[in-house]
Write a structure and sequence with these properties.
Length: 143
């Protein structure tokens, strides 16, 4: 399987498995094998980034949590918590998906329910990092 090189300075030690004609990647927080989709490839980079580069523990990551928005059930990609409080909400898109105002509005709507201090929207090639302050998002560089 040919995986695109994503825009991360670090390289991570991913575990892969093939079953018939499908590829799977090991998810550290859930301790399970997940189907390797383009979006999952991006999500796993961010998970490894927060675990290995930023030093968060697996218990600080909440993945694919359900939330209700305007009567519809949605799922967040993952949330970094600090002392059980929402800190960073991360929304991952496949590399072929362009990051637009519409995709940013999606994560901002999710965050109106979650209440994280920061959000990251990423397709693995581009990353948008913003902090919610005084009822506005202030855009920041990725550290």
């Amino acid at each position: 399987m040919e995986l695109p090189k994503l825009n991360f300075a670090e390289t991570f030690d991913f575990k892969f498995r093939k079953d018939k004609d499908k590829f799977f990647i090991y998810d550290l927080p859930r301790k399970s094998w997940l189907l390797l989709t383009p979006e999952e490839w991006v999500r796993q980079h961010w998970i490894h980034y927060f675990l290995t580069v930023k030093g968060y523990s697996s218990s600080a990551l909440i993945t694919e949590k359900k939330l209700e928005l305007n009567g519809l059930t949605k799922r967040i990609d993952f949330l970094i918590t600090e002392k059980t409080l929402p800190k960073i909400l991360v929304e991952c898109k496949a590399p072929r998906i362009k990051l637009t105002e519409k995709t940013f509005e999606q994560i901002a709507r999710y965050n109106s329910i979650i209440g994280a201090k920061e959000i990251i929207l990423s397709n693995g090639l581009q990353h948008i990092h913003a902090k919610f302050e005084d009822n506005n998002y202030i855009f920041l560089p990725i550290e």
